[in-house]
Task: inverse folding
């Protein structure tokens, strides 16, 4: 076994992100830990923590260890999981977070390595497990076509493509299919995907033909096109898309609009995703300034490279939108 971390344990749980990188990371670990009894789960889609009920369920199962992969759970929550379950906790991640000393925390980015070296959690795992289809898909899932500009990692992806007679577009299509479960909010589908990817890492044809993922992906595409063609409103330098959809497509919609309107600020509001809360995504120049404004108001807000996401009480959405509009600098 390559990963000595788990030698002394026989029963464990993998907790993974719901996107392609998380699913493929879980698939890599499942494959590596095949001789052990391993279960896998995703947090409730949208939550970067485990709920009280989820922790209770885990406690009942009596796992010896828990591996948390590709999901950046705040330190306090990690300690809570550790104390409540009594399990040995391992974290493999590539999101910037201070090292949590009370657990086995493996994160090269937190140790100062460049994000370019580790574009995905699968790439962190590949240090021990090698570069296979799952490792490659994780990197393409998180970076999309921008991975082509990564001079450290892309040559290895090209090697993989050449030796497997595959094209980059094949990888993009697989990512679209694997991501389709969380976009239609199918948590069970996300969890089954990890094992499916482990079993089919050498059969891309089976991935392309996955029935449910193809159906999901067609539904998502239709919904995205429908929203883009009917609901976009121009408002000076801004593009607004105010929608109500149960699908998890707000980041895709925001990115699509920004790509075709690079000089505008794009604001997408989804009022149909959570019961009493709304989602807002904003792309444009200087949008980071909105993060402290949102947090001061008690909202959950975060972002990276010209994009900000906010989750806020539905009753305050219109108020916050007018603040966004008047705080333009
Ligand atoms: Mn990731």
Result:
């Amino acid at each position: 076994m390559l990963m000595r971390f788990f030698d002394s344990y026989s029963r464990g749980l993998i907790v993974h992100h719901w996107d392609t990188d998380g699913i493929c990371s879980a698939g890599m670990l499942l494959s590596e830990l095949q001789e052990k009894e391993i279960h896998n789960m995703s947090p409730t889609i949208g939550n970067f923590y485990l709920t009280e009920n989820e922790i209770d369920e885990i406690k009942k199962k009596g796992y010896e260890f828990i591996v948390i992969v590709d999901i950046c759970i705040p330190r306090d929550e990690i300690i809570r999981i550790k104390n409540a379950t009594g399990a040995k906790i391992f974290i493999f991640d590539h999101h910037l977070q201070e090292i949590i000393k009370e657990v086995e925390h493996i994160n090269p980015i937190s140790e100062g390595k460049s994000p370019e070296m580790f574009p995905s959690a699968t790439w962190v795992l590949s240090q021990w497990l090698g570069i296979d289809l799952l490792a490659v898909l994780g990197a393409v899932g998180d970076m999309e076509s921008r991975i082509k500009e990564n001079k450290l990692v892309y040559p290895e992806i090209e090697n993989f493509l050449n030796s497997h007679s595959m094209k980059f577009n094949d990888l993009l299509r697989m990512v679209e299919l694997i991501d389709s479960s969380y976009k239609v909010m199918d948590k069970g589908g996300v969890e089954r995907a990890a094992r499916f990817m482990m079993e089919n890492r050498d059969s891309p044809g089976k991935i392309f033909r996955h029935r449910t993922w193809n159906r999901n992906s067609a539904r998502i595409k239709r919904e995205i096109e429908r929203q883009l063609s009917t609901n976009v409103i121009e408002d000076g330098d801004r593009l607004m898309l105010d929608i109500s959809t149960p699908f998890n497509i707000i980041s895709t919609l925001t990115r699509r609009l920004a790509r075709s309107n690079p000089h505008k600020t794009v604001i997408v509001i989804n009022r149909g995703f959570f019961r009493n809360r709304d989602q807002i995504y904003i792309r444009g120049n200087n949008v980071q300034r909105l993060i402290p404004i949102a947090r001061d108001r008690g909202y959950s807000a975060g972002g990276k490279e010209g994009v900000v996401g906010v989750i806020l009480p539905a009753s305050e959405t219109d108020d916050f939108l007018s603040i966004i509009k008047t705080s333009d600098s």
The mean pLDDT is 94. The two ends are 56 Å apart (CA to CA).
